[in-house]
Please model this.
Amino acid sequence: MHQVLKTFAVVLGVSLICSLWVTSAAVLLKDRQELNLRLDKIRHLLDLAAIPAGEDPLRAYQTYIEPWLVDLDQAQVVDPKSIGLGDLAAFSISAVARDPDLSRPISKELDLAAIRRRPKYMPVYWVKGERGFTRLILPVYGRGLWSTLYGYLALERDLATVAGISFYDHRETPGLGGEVDNPRWKALWRGKQAFDAQGQVVIEVVKGVVDLSRPQAIHQVDGLTGATLTTRGVDRLIRYWLGPDGYGPFLETLRKRIATEHGVG
Model:
C-alpha cells in the first residue's frame, strides 16, 4: 500500500510539474505570438508606406507612421483614450467588432463585406514625409471564400489614387484565392483611381483581365484566376470600406480640408 501511495504521489507530482510547464509555455508563447503578429502588421504598413523596415521595424513605424483613431459615424478623429483604447498599433479589429459598445450591426443591404458588425472606430495611418503627409493607409477587411481577409489599402495624398494593397491575415486557397499575396497582383493596384469626379466609389476587381483600351480601365484591377469568390470578396470589401458606411465620409472631410489648406474651391 505504501508503495502504491508513493507511486501515486510521484505521478501526481510529475503531472503538476508538467501542467505548470505547459501553462507557462503557453502564456509565454502567446505573448510572443502577439508580438510577432503586431510586428507583421507593422511590416505591412511600412511596405505600403514605401519605408524600409530595417532591423527595427517598430522604430521605423514610430518615426514615419502617425496613427489616428476615426469615429466613422461622425467622420472625425477622436482620442483613443477617451473610449478605452491605447496603442493603435495593437488595435484588434476582431475584438472591437465583437464589443457591443464599440461596434454596431450592419443591415444586409449595406453589408457588402459580409462582416455583420462594423467597428464604430477604426485606426487610419498617415505616412509622414519631409514635406508633410504623403499617404493614408486604411485597414480593410471582409469575407472571401474560406476566411475573412484582413489587410490595408493605401491611398496617395489626393485620397483617390491607390498606392498599394496588402493582406496580412487570411486562409484563402494557396495558388488560387491565396494569390492576394502575389506581388505581381498587388502591383496591379498601384495608380488605380478609386473614385470618380463626383467622389463615388468606382474601383472594382473584375472577372478576368482588364481591357486596358477602355477608359474605365483606370478604375479596374484584374481578378484572381480560378478564384471567383475570393475576387468577389476583395471587390466588395474594398467598395464597402471606401463607401458611405466605411471611410467614405471621413475621406470627404479630409479632401475638403486639404482643398481649403491649398486654397482650392
Q: What stands out?
A: The first helix runs from residue 2 to 48. The chain has one domain: 41-261.
